[in-house]
């Protein structure tokens, strides 16, 4: 059977566009009606409780396959596709009688319902209907989500656009490595970012968890506040000199120059979106996407690897900062040997991005080369480890 591919209507074909949008909206509404609602989930839990096996395994409620099939029939049409042999087999956990945990089954169904609900919700913003969200689609989604998140109630309305920009940037930085300007809905559902975002529905979310959550109000205000503090001439952009004050102010000059060479700038200055990428890369140096960003900066000749010349090119600035602080500079040859021993590249003279990722030490290498504080932390790692492991004297 031949499958006929339907072309997307052009932007000028307004009627076709409207017809397609209406058809997609009706499809999503129909899919939404097929999901279990809260009252149906409550009824399902009652059914599960009634049909559990006799408890012989502590307090855990279990269910056998016969009762599993029976509940699938009693639960109604929206329930049946959760009660298949495949699901039962998937949830097996070495029970001697071949049963599955009632709670595990219910949590599985709850998770599936949440995934489908979220996918439908995201798909409503998928203007093209191609299974991905563009930057503007994500912005609309998060902007309309803000009123449903109690933890963001305190944000001034004038800050909403900056909050949206901050939130969307994390999705794009980590889920759009090729910088296509769009993210697959499937990837959004598979990562933990939506969980972090929707955690903000919890009015009692502890302060420490909020501060560690990129999407929280304290985190967004912190990042934007830092940007404003760096912008000394208040033109809304950051120059190299202004960015040099980032963090503890110990990032090297040559690293910052490379950042401005490799990243999108406007008349030699960095805007807020580019700054967010910079922050996400530095705050998550162990992540593959961050290492990809930083490797591109370190690879001064765009040759796909770092050699002794590249390493020395960056480490010279570390040595200069040591001299400025009246410290005896560490020998580059010693550092180079340590780096190659640490990374263990396939080619003993070249370090590729693949080598960095495989070694699990990519963040350490980056810190040694771009940040004096990062180098000192590495240089004094044994002393610091000793201090942390010392038992308190009573």
TrEMBL record:
InterPro entries found in the cross-reference section: EF-hand-dom_pair, EF_Hand_1_Ca_BS, PPP2R3C
GO annotation terms (biological process): cortical cytoskeleton organization; microtubule cytoskeleton organization; regulation of dephosphorylation
One GO location term (cellular component): nucleus
Localization of this protein: Cytoplasm; Nucleus
Record has Nucleus as a keyword: yes
A GO term, aspect molecular function: metal ion binding
Keyword rRNA processing: no
UniProt keyword annotations, A-Z: Calcium, Cytoplasm, Metal-binding, Nucleus, Repeat
Primary location recorded for the protein, binned into one broad class: cytoplasm
Entries under Gene3D superfamilies matching the protein: 1.10.238.220, EF-hand
PANTHER family: SERINE/THREONINE-PROTEIN PHOSPHATASE 2A REGULATORY SUBUNIT B'' SUBUNIT GAMMA (PTHR12085), SERINE_THREONINE-PROTEIN PHOSPHATASE 2A REGULATORY SUBUNIT B'' SUBUNIT GAMMA (PTHR12085:SF3)
Full protein name: Serine/threonine-protein phosphatase 2A regulatory subunit B'' subunit gamma
Species in which this protein is naturally found: Clastoptera arizonana
Upper lineage: Eukaryota, Metazoa, Ecdysozoa, Arthropoda, Hexapoda
């Amino acid at each position: 059977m031949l499958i006929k591919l339907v072309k997307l209507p052009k932007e000028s074909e307004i009627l076709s566009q409207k017809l397609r949008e209406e058809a997609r909206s009706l499809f999503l509404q129909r899919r939404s009606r097929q999901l279990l609602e809260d009252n149906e989930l409550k009824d399902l839990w009652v059914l599960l409780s009634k049909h559990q096996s006799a408890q012989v395994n502590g307090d855990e409620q279990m269910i056998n396959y016969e009762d599993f099939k029976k509940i699938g029939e009693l639960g109604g049409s929206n329930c049946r596709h959760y009660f298949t042999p495949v699901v039962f087999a998937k949830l097996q956990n070495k029970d001697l009688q071949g049963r599955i945990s009632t709670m595990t089954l219910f949590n599985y169904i709850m998770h599936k319902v949440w995934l489908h609900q979220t996918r439908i919700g995201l798909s409503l913003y998928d203007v093209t209907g191609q299974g991905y969200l563009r930057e503007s689609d994500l912005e609309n989604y998060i902007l309309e989500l803000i009123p449903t998140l109690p933890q963001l109630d305190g944000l001034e309305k004038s800050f909403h656009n900056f909050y949206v920009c901050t939130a969307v940037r994390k999705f794009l930085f980590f889920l759009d490595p090729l910088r296509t300007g769009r993210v697959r809905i499937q990837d959004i559902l598979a990562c933990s970012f939506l969980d972090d975002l929707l955690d903000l529905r919890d009015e009692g979310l502890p302060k420490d968890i909020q501060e560690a959550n990129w999407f929280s109000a304290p985190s967004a205000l912190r990042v934007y506040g830092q940007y404003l503090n760096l912008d000394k001439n208040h033109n809304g952009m950051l120059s190299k000199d202004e960015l040099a004050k980032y963090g503890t102010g110990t990032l090297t000059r040559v690293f910052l120059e490379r950042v401005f060479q490799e990243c999108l700038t406007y008349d030699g200055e960095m805007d807020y979106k580019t700054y967010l990428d910079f922050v996400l890369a530095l705050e998550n140096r162990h992540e593959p996407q961050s290492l990809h960003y930083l490797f591109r900066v370190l690879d001064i000749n765009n040759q796909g690897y770092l050699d002794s010349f590249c390493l020395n090119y960056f480490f010279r600035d570390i040595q200069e900062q040591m001299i400025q602080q009246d410290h005896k500079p560490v020998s580059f040859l010693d550092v180079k040997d340590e780096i190659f021993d640490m990374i263990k590249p396939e080619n003993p003279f070249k370090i590729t991005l693949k080598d960095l990722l495989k070694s699990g030490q990519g963040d350490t290498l980056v810190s040694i080369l771009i940040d004096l504080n990062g180098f000192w932390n590495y240089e004094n790692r044994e002393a610091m480890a000793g201090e942390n492991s010392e038992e308190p004297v009573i």
